[in-house]
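#lab-general

N.A. 3:47 PM
ok so I finally got the sequence cleaned up, no stray characters, all 364 residues accounted for. can someone with queue access submit it? mine expired

B.Y. 3:52 PM
send it over

N.A. 3:53 PM
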Amino acid sequence: MSEPAPPMQQRARSASSIGIDQVSRRFAADAVALDDVSLDIQPGEFFTLLGPSGCGKTTLLRLLAGLDQPDSGLIHIGGRSMQGVPPHRRSVNTVFQSYALFPHRNVRENIRFGLEMQRLSAAEISRRIERTAALIGIDKLLERGIDQLSGGQRQRVALARALVNEPDVLLLDEPLSALDAGLRGRLQIELRRLQRQLGMTFVFVTHDQEEAMVMSDRIAVLNHGRLAQIGTPQAIYEKPADEFVARFMGHENLLPIKKSDATGIETPIGRFSGDFAEGAYLLLPPQSLILHRLDQPAAPDCIEAVVDECLYRGGMTEYRLSCSDWPLVATLANQGRPGPAAGDRVRLEVVTRAAAVLQAEGDG
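B.Y. 4:20 PM
back already:
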């Protein structure tokens, strides 16, 4: 009896590094999709391209897949230049948002398609299908028609069809965007766990900030075809590079800095002491604001505000406030006791160590 093929996670993954060096892509003189983008993706990394529609993230994914070619710059996968290399010669597979399944074939036949193109033996094809289907959790669905599957099951089939070829890099173009919120959340966890188990490089495209933070080792934020920031989810959220990244990541508490000196900065809601760098805005993350009732003891440097709205969000409550006529947002964990109500006057304690000074968008 022959030995079973080694699990995919035991394969060497050194070939899955990606280097993108000064890559640009223009569709017309005034339509720049990518503008001098450079970044390195490590082997076995879950790397996400994040940004609004039209920022260039899908264009970059297509360049990695070989479905398009850059106007300038170089792309390397596993240390090998991809210049002129067609898609079928790259150890790269793509999972599309639309699934792209064959409706007239059952699950097994859909997964088998790519293997048949490689002219593998029937025994090897069968072994890979069974192993990959079990890994994805669809081994009981192999004989079902595509029209008999739910949206989540179809997405798993699309994922299995990409993984069964054992590529060095898996590209995922917003593969979860068509799913409902509950199923999407479960598949985010499953996909992240699968990536860690395989040790494969995943390059994931999304415009969903929370999805990117939950799933990624690192995130590249793109804006108008340029790289705005690259870093861990924590760094991107807590220390955004500029005003654009902060607003795109959902931050609303951006206070224009009126004046700064060696001891602090002046903003529309008051002065903050500390050793702050030069910049155009002071970012106060919503969790950096602590609310105290007027009759509660509080730090002497608190500032007064009025609660405009209280939005219950399960594990936390979002408070929308007015402070010196300036809108602010605070989030507090729900701990089983009532908090301030709409219309209440409160004192705000600002945790300045969580604050950050940012440049205006485009100022670098």
